[in-house]
Amino acid sequence: MAPPTRQFHRLSIGQTMPETRAQSSRTARVAGRPDPSGNDDDSDRGNQEGDDSPVETSSEEEEDEDEDDEEDESSEEESTRASIVRTRSGITYDLRHLDTESEAKAMLGLTGQFEVVNCGASSSGYDFQLLDRPRVHVGPGPPTCTCTTFQSRPGVACHHIFWLLDQLHGCFLPDPASTELALSHDGRPRVRPRIEDLLNGQLEAVADRLKWPYLRVEGDGRTTGMTRAEKVRDVLSAFSPKVLPEDFRQDLVETTAQTRTPEQCVVQGDFEATIFRLAVHDDSVFTSMCKAMPSGACAAIYFDKVQEQLRRLLADFDRYCATGECPSDSSSPGRGPLEVDEVVQQLRRSVSRIHANIALRAPYGSEGAAKALVSILEAIAARNKDALEGNTWGRASFHGEDEDQRNLYHLLIGSDDMNLDPDAELFVIDALFALPPSDLAQHIPKLLDIRSKIEVNRAPKQFLIRLGALIRQTESASAGAASGSGQMGSGQKRPAAGNPGGYSKRSR
Residue 61 falls within a domain, yes or no? Predict the structure, then answer.
């Protein structure tokens, strides 16, 4: 073995010490100079018996290069895998044609989960209302969305569009699990029939399959009615004291596109399923059922049940925060530990359902919807406090959040130091604007009291302005109605909204 000093014998004061022998060898070859380590000197190699450093250097170089190649290949494979995503619909998507921003939106949408409140067809295409305000429109041009993400960069799909188009395509592919689609920046597959062409005349069937409420849109833009299956579900659920149509026997899926004889409607051992099938497929059964439970009664029952669910949810939450006691009722919408995030989500979902059903059930039920909405707004306006304040079981927080994040008022209404999105849905307020002002007249005192409370609690300016506008609109309509009724004469009364033909609500 050569002495350690041998490798330095060619160094001069001006030279730089190479970090490794491999680097030294490579540097020498590039410069056309002898290897400073002396490894390319034949006489030195001859004198260094058993010194196999040239072989070692070559081996080290090859190992370094192999490692670099493996790292490059591994990085490339990871990048490819990150650009391929398989969704819940079963479809596999290739995102490699998207830029970085679009790929991030696609990943968020395709791996996320949203809820469609209602959908419908119109002369300009198809509209899909999602929970918490976003509305996606599919038409002849690229899909659009009302969310701020899309509005900040129109023409480039947001996460809502990527998610929705995945759900829709899953309904038209014969075998989604074996399908791979490359996506464009507008959210649509690069090589596929356009989704608006696939939806032509099929939206009602698609909505039925995905359990999305379907609205028929008239020429004047007014939405009306339910599908026959939705109507049957609505009637049958009306006999349940707590279950809403959206949650009633979700295993029961029937469409009028599939015909059945009365004998084929029989489901052995399941009378409810048999009646459901008969009502969907047999006109006489459907007509008799609707006579027994008219639309006005269904609407009144629906909004009463939503209001009761919300009342029970808040009572259960208050009790849980104070004592740690979980709801014992198995049908409670919040059974199990009730934590603030879950309660906020359920409150928003219920208000969105009321909002959607105002249009779905028009002209019925608006009085019940008004009562339910004002009641929930009143309850939240009175809860400007830490939900765990004064509890008896020693709970300091749910998941380490601060007191504002445990405050239902702060989470749902907000405070004046919050910058609300101008397009954001205002809790309850937007739904109240969907009601006829005349149906809010009896609630003016409560609305005024709510406004006073949230002014003291420093509600966001946008919220106060909208609530003030709602009150003025209601007061104006109420004054006009009073003036009109005075001219009609004392013997005439305006028919109750939503109860044509003299139908009166059954006592409860």
Answer: no
Count CA atoms closer than 13 A to 355's CA, side-chain side: 24
Q: Residue 143's closest CA among 130, 122, 128, 121?
A: 128
Q: Which residue type sits at 410?
A: H
pTM higher than 0.85: no
Cα(96)–Cα(163) distance, rounded to whole angstroms? 17
Is 80 exceeded by the pLDDT of residue 332?
no
| pLDDT tens, position by position, 69-127 | 555 554 444 444 457 888 888 899 999 889 999 999 999 999 988 888 778 887 789 99
* Cα–Cα distance measured from residue 224 to residue 236, given in angstroms and rounded to the nearest whole number: 20
Do 97 and 136 lie in a common domain? yes
Structural domain containing residue 314: 295-486
Sheet holding 116-122, edge to edge: 144-145, 135-138, 125-130, 116-122, 214-217, 223-224
- ω into 36 cis (within 30 of 0): no
Which amino acid is located at 214 in the chain? Answer: Y
Distances (CA, A) of 3 to 9, 19, 51, 134, 341: 11, 19, 11, 77, 72
Strand partners, 126: 121, 138
- Angle, helices 295-323 vs 366-381, to 10°: value is 10
Please measure the distance between the N-terminal and C-terminal CA atoms of the chain and give it in whole angstroms. 103
The domain boundary residue, chosen from 274, 291, 308: 291
Q: Which residue has tokens 């009572």?
A: 315
Q: Phi and psi at residue 161, in whole multiples of 5°? A: -65, -45
Based on the domain organization, do 171 and 259 belong to the same domain? no
Structure tokens at 365: 């039920």
| Same domain, yes or no: 303 and 416 | yes
| Among candidate residues 124, 154, 98, 155, the one with its CA nearest the CA of residue 221 | 124
| 113 shares a domain with 37 | no
Amino acid at 481: A
Query: How many CB atoms lie under 10 A from the CB of residue 9?
Result: 12
| Any domain includes 241 | yes
Asked if the structure places residue 78 within a domain, the reply is no
Same domain? 98 vs 158:
yes
For residues 470 and 492, give the distance between their C-alpha atoms in angstroms, rounded to a whole number.
28
Within a domain: 48: yes
pLDDT tens digit string along 172-199? 888 888 888 989 999 988 877 889 899 9
Structural domains of the chain, count: 4
